[in-house]
Structure formats: structure tokens, C-alpha cells
Amino acid sequence: MQEAIRGDALCGHHLLLAQIQGQGRAAAALLHAARHLCKATQAPDSFGSDAPEGSDKFRFQFIASKPAFILGQIKATRLPVVWLDSDLEFHQFPKLFSPGGWEDGPRDVAIFNYWGNESKGQNKPSTGSGVVYFNSSTRAKNLLVAWAEAMAFDTNTEAADDQVFNELLGKGWVHRASFGWLPSSYLRVPPLFYRGVVPVIDHDHGNPPGLIAHSGKQALMPRIGIGKGPMEWRDGGMKPANCTSIYDEPEMPDWQREQLKAKHKKLLKCKSTAQQITSEWCDGACNADVSDPGCDEFCECDEVTP
């Protein structure tokens, strides 16, 4: 489900799955009664014969379509859009999504950044995309196009959408738009995080953040010339397009090659040092990226022999 802001009102756009139409219709009826329902969109019941609803392939395809859906709704309504996961609970009206909600000026994007208070988190955020606001500005739409394209890379077919978004921002897109880091009250995740925070929005799924609860595949942006090439209609069928990159593939420096080699050789066994983090999360996050600030802050790791 996603919401657009129109004046002081919320305009609800439901994206409905066939298996939960009953729940979706009930929510739509409530929005309609409150005069907040603008439209509802029926999601496909499959992404091909090998990806019916309920399968992992369908789930990954559905997740990958998220930025394209948001962009489509912005173009259709010419309004800002807030994506909201279906397992959220509102405790207060989310004023930061309304016009004038940010005292120092509007934002192109507003999202929760787990490392928003860390210096590293300003250049390489670690976001949670269960709640994300996109303005109808050109910069926000350009970022959505880049995110949709990144999700379409064959290296990211099973990657979590927020992990791909993080990778995209860390590659430079964080400097190409105006970002607002939502406070923890806008994505409170009980019981793991933020006990004592007065919530605006609860994220009630109770899953730990990071790769473990979503997908074991890390986001990876293909280097120039690597990845599935574009297709074109030729000789009565879809065939690989005859195109080549105008750029030379950059040479990886020796120090980076050695660092990458050493990183892949290490196997870490980690334990949590914080109440809100599990040891399983530490194992997954620190083995994925030992430089993650969360490893230093919340985990203790020892190298083990494979």
C-alpha cells in the first residue's frame, strides 16, 4: 500500500494481492469511509508460469517492482508518495509527510536510516524501506528510475530492495537529492529496537534488520560491461541488442584486489553485545560487511578456520 499527500489529507492507493483481497478490501473500505481512498491496483497473480503467487520467485519479482510502482503513482497523480508496508500500525498522524512538515524545507526523499547518527551513515546510509517518502520532484523521480533499474539488474533478482537502495545511495546517489532521515518513531521495530520511543508508526513484523530476514543475496551493482544486456526486437523475436559500452572497464587497483581477496577468505563467528541485536544478525551482517558500523557497536567477532 502507498499513500500520497494532498493538502492535509491522505490519499490511499492500495496495491492488492489476490490471496489477501479480503484484508485489502476491508482496509480500502475504511479509507473510503474516511474519504481517503483514491484508487486500488490489483497486483498480478503471477510473473509467468514458473512464478505463481506464493512462490519465492513471485515474492522477489514483486519486491523488485516496488520502485517502478511508486514512480508510476507519482506520474499518475503528480503528488508525493509514501510507500507503507502492510504490517504497519499508526499511533499518530505522520506530520513529516505533510506540506511544511520539515521546518528547514521540503525533502526529495524521507526514509529511516539506521546509521543516521553516524558520520559514515551520511555517505553510505543503511535504510529501512518499510516506510519511505518520495516527493514529486525531478530529483526524487530520477532516483526512483535509478532504483528501478538497479532492481532490474540480473545480479539483484533476489536481493532485498532496501539493500539495493543502500548500495545505490552509497555509490553517490545520496548526494543527488535532498534526504530527510525519519526519526525512530516513524519505523519503530519492536521488540528489537527503540524501547521507550513514543511511536508514530510501528513496524510490527518483529524481524531483525539486515539480510537474514529478507534475502541471503547481497546487493551488487554490476561493473561497466557486466550484467544482462538489453534486448531488442529483431528478425521476428527478442534478441540481445548489438551495443557496446562507450566506457572502458576501470582497472581494479592492487590494494583493492588484495582487500577483496582477504575479505572473502575470512569467516567470522560473532556474538551480540547488545540486548536489541541477536547473535544470528551479527553473524550475517558482519560476514557480509565487517566494516559495517553495527559490527563494532553491537557485535564481537572472532575469525574461524573454514
Detailed description of the structure:
The N and C termini lie far apart (44 Å). The protein has 2 domains: 2-225, Spore Coat Polysaccharide Biosynthesis Protein SpsA, Chain A, CATH 3.90.550; 252-306, no CATH class. The chain is built from 9 helices and 13 strands. Helices cover 30% and strands 21% of the residues. The model is unreliable at 1-8 and 208-213 (pLDDT under 50). Strand 10 (231-234) and strand 11 form a beta hairpin.
Write the layout of secondary structure elements.
Elements: E1 2-6, E2 9-16, H1 21-33, E3 37-42, H2 56-64, H3 66-77, E4 81-84, E5 88-90, E6 109-113, H4 120-123, E7 127-134, H5 138-152, H6 161-170, E8 179-181, E9 201-203, E10 231-234, E11 237-240, H7 254-265, E12 267-272, H8 279-288, H9 293-298, E13 299-304
Parallel strand pairs: 2-3, 6-8
Antiparallel strand pairs: 1-2, 1-4, 4-7, 5-9, 6-7, 10-11, 12-13
Quick structural summary:
Helices cover 30% and strands 21% of the residues. With 306 residues, it is α+β, with helices and mostly antiparallel strands. Residues 1-8 and 208-213 have low confidence and may be disordered.
Count of folded domains: 2
Shape: globular
- N-to-C SSE string, H for helix and E for strand: EEHEHHEEEHEHHEEEEHEHHE
Helix fraction, binned, reads 25-40%
Give the CATH level 1 class of the largest domain: Alpha Beta
Segments where pLDDT lies below 50 for 5+ residues? Answer: 1-8, 208-213
Tally of DSSP helical segments = 9
Read across the widest sheet, the strand sequence of neighbours is 3-2-1-4-7-6-8
- The tally of beta strands, per DSSP, is 13
Main sheet attributes: strand count, strand direction, barrel closure: 7 strands, mixed
* CATH fold category name of the largest domain: Spore Coat Polysaccharide Biosynthesis Protein SpsA, Chain A
**Radius of gyration from CA coordinates:** 21 Å
